[in-house]
Amino acid sequence: MKLGRARLGAALLVASASALWRGEPSAAASPPSSAAASPPSSAARPAALSDEACIACHADAARTWQGSMHHASASNSAYETAVYAEPLAFCRRCHAPHGDPSRETGEAARQAGITCTTCHLRPGDARTVLASPRAGPSSAPHGVERSAALGQAVCARCHEFDFPDARGERMQKTATEHRASAYAAVSCASCHMPAAGGHRSHAFAASRDASALARAVSVDAGRDGDQLRFVLEPRGVGHAFPTGDLFRRLTLTVVSEDAAGRPLATKRRYFGRVFGPVRSGGEIVRREIADERLFARTEVTFALAPRTDPTTVRWQLDYERVAFSPTRHPEDAVVEGSVTLARGTLAPP
Ligand code: HEC
Ligand code: HEC
Ligand code: HEC
Ligand code: HEC
Ligand code: HEC
User: Fold this and answer.
1) Do 46 and 323 form a contact (C-beta atoms < 8 A)?
2) Would you say the CB of residue 294 lies under 6 angstroms from ligand 5?
3) Which residues are CB-contacts of 240 (< 8 A; sequence separation ≥ 6)?
4) What is the pLDDT of residue 65?
5) Where are the domains of the chain?
6) DSSP sequence for 110-135
């Protein structure tokens, strides 16, 4: 059986109130800085804003957003395959916020994905745009509320959430990881929205950007006879690596070869979340039993079987997007996409 994202747990309950704005300080609790806000006077009340309007006036932001996974959140094949297997309102509320979550996503909401208004407008207020904090008035023809929430709390609405059953376990936990990291004081947007041509990029390339992924970890490989030692160190990552989807992982593969280049042995080490059977009430459910992703500098050792002839070792570190695991063996996982982050050779001693 395919063990989908939601079905990793016990019987599903219908997720009722997964309000995307829950947990975020309300406008009343964190007033915008007074100098910056431009509350519309009742005389010149701007019209309600739509995505079409934002896109028409902000071509630069629109161009980078167009190629983003946010725009493709309901139409990319990995999501469409997964939601076909688990057709839940829970999934649609987040991936297709413009549709009716209780039915199959309609074409307009599927094409739209996560849009300008999803991130920049608060529910019930289609006239005031959330913007990042900075001093000085705004020349915008619409209301502007400056709030640090845009670059952080808004992200956490979707990048941190529980499984849809009532077990209280996180399906993704990027915001929690971020708070516990050395970069807790740096917002998500500071790292994920670099300046591009005077504007902030809305591309959020992340796992589709092979060179950014490769820069995010360094590998130091060493060998002492039959003993191999690897030191993996995340670089400038503000959370676990990988973060996000629960099936992401890094795989370190080590292959020893004899003098003629014939493979002798292959060993692997996985850095991911491990889900396994746990007794809960009268039932056996699958829960996270270990989190083996990279959080800090991590040392890994392998011992080769002793041999008298010279053995060469080839190694490689891959970043893998996993669709699902049919068994509890990580080597059986169905890999949807993978990027090689580093590789090398350790010559015979
Ligand atoms: C009629 C044109 C128009 C429309 C429609 C429009 N904007 Fe703007 N917006 C502007 C202009 C002009 C500025 C000021 C110059 C700038 O910062 O680019 C601005 C500023 C902004 C800012 C920066 C505010 C600041 O001072 O930091 C954000 C964020 C923003 N708009 C987002 C949006 C979003 C999201 C939408 C749709 C919900 C939208 N805008 C709709 C014209 C428009
Ligand atoms: C995933 C959430 C998200 C989506 C979707 C999104 N934005 Fe933004 N946008 C942000 C954040 C966060 C910032 C502030 C970045 C910073 O300055 O820290 C921002 C900044 C901006 C700015 C001001 C900075 C600049 O580049 O000029 C504009 C204008 C803007 N967005 C327009 C848009 C438009 C138009 C769309 C839709 C095509 C859109 N945004 C979609 C999160 C989002
Ligand atoms: C409405 C929900 C929502 C909001 C708000 C949101 N995201 Fe996302 N984000 C998603 C979804 C869903 C995806 C993945 C789409 C997919 O792969 O199917 C995604 C993808 C991403 C990715 C790419 C991940 C990858 O593997 O390449 C990054 C980076 C990201 N988001 C960062 C942010 C940041 C930073 C913010 C806040 C400024 C933010 N997101 C706000 C839902 C959201
Ligand atoms: C100090 C910088 C930094 C901060 C802060 C940060 N990230 Fe990241 N993030 C990275 C790097 C580096 C990567 C991996 C390389 C890449 O994909 O760009 C990454 C990757 C990701 C990914 C793709 C999955 C993966 O691990 O490859 C997502 C999703 C994401 N970040 C979301 C967030 C969210 C949401 C926040 C805030 C809660 C955040 N990030 C804060 C640097 C940061
Ligand atoms: C609260 C928001 C939220 C809910 C609910 C949610 N997701 Fe996601 N999903 C995300 C975010 C955020 C990402 C991007 C994280 C990343 O790229 O690592 C994502 C990524 C994905 C991906 C891409 C994985 C990859 O490696 O490319 C798939 C597929 C997916 N989700 C399917 C689902 C399905 C199916 C459900 C329902 C069982 C679901 N999601 C429920 C927020 C959500």
Assistant:
1) no
2) no
3) 174, 177, 291, 293, 294, 295
4) 98
5) 6-205, 208-346
6) HHH-S-HHHHH-BTTBSSEEEE---S
Residue minimizing CA distance to atom 26 of ligand 4: 242
The pLDDT tens digits of the residues spanning 227-261 come to: 999 999 999 999 999 999 999 999 999 999 999 99
Identify the three-state secondary structure at position 204.
coil
Strand-pairing partners, residue 283, are: 280
Contact (Cβ atoms closer than 8 angstroms) between residue 237 and residue 293: no
Bridge partners for 144 per DSSP: 129
Choosing from 5, 22, 69 the residue with most ligand 3 atoms within 8 A of its CB, the one to mutate for a pocket test is: 69
Which residues face 157 on adjacent strands? none
CATH no. of 208-346: 2.60.40.10
Q: What is the pTM of this model?
A: 0.93
CB 253 within 8 A of CB 335: no
Q: Which amino acid is residue 213, in one-letter code?
A: L
Q: Is the CB of 78 under 6 A from ligand 5?
A: yes
Cα-based torsion angle of the residue sequence 323, 325, 329, 333 in order, rounded to the nearest 10 degrees: -30
Nearest residue (by CA) to ligand 4, atom 29, is 244
Question: Which of ligand 4's atoms lies nearest the C-alpha of 242?
Answer: 26
Please give the distance, rounded to the nearest whole angstrom, from the Cα atom of residue 221 to the centre of ligand 2.
Answer: 41
